[in-house]
Amino acid sequence: MTNGRPPADPARPDRRVELPPARTSDGPGLWEALRTRRSVRKYLRLSLGLQDLSQLLWAAQGLTSSRGPRGLRTAPSAGACYPIDTYVAVGEVADLEPGLWRYEVDGHGLELTRPGDLRADLARAALGQTFLAICPAVFCFTLVLERTAARYGERAFRYACLDCGHLAQNLALAAAGLGYGTCMVGAFDDTAVAEVLGLDPTDPREVPLYLVPVGRPA
Ligand SMILES: Cc1cc2nc3c(=O)[nH]c(=O)nc-3n(C[C@H](O)[C@H](O)[C@H](O)COP(=O)(O)O)c2cc1C
To answer: For residues 110 and 16, is the Cβ–Cβ distance under 8 A?
Structure first.
């Protein structure tokens, strides 16, 4: 099981991709990443390598320990409930078909949940922020509140938003370290983004929370 979801359909192996292992030691300097990170809204039309995508997904919320019922990840989470799921709207990533891919934290893999290039739809849903259609990939973070609410009740929404900030910042710093730009995008039409992600906008069990484009700065 990944995050309480059934594993990818074994009859459709084409829908699952194992990511190359991420580097978990050495790598870019933290101070320089902190100093150089800036919101980037102009991207080159250059594709993203699968190794870099793997690194960025791992940085956002990859597994770093098998302790506890869900393991522990690169980003902290209140009560280790991990209410945020990560999708990547892939436009131009080497060896990955365009579409919406969900990150499977346990197996460090991706599952295709919607085929097709969704970046232009995301840009429209994000009130015309056209850079979402230019960057090679958009990370889309969704909230499955129940995972945290089961333990923390009314406090859960606050905790889950804090969780999301942590993993988005991990992503932004890792991207900066690898020479990529990002921009946090919180301004969007919730219903429209849910539809692009293939979620039922009337179902509060999983809702879009944050979009983060990644690409080489122009
Ligand atoms: C919660 C949040 C939501 C944001 N939403 C947007 C957005 O929808 N569009 C955008 O262009 N920038 C957005 N930003 C980026 C901010 O405008 C940016 O971080 C700020 O201007 C500071 O610049 P810096 O990130 O380069 O340091 C958002 C940032 C945060 C933290």
So the answer is: yes
114-147: pLDDT as tens digits: 999 999 999 999 999 999 999 999 999 999 999 9
**Domain, as residue range, for 175:** 48-215
- The CATH number of the domain holding residue 86 is 3.40.109.10
Model confidence pLDDT, tens digit, residues 148-194: 999 999 999 999 999 999 999 999 999 999 999 999 999 999 999 99
Closest CA to ligand 1's atom 15: 184
**Domain count across the chain:** 1
**Does the Cβ of 44 fall within 6 Å of ligand 1?**
no
The Cα–Cα gap between 91 and 89 comes to: 7
pTM summary value: 0.95
Q: How far is the CA of 8 from the centre of ligand 1 (A)?
A: 34
SS3 label, residue 96: strand
Q: Is 110 in the pocket of ligand 1 (CB under 6 A)?
A: no
Residue 3 belongs to a domain: no
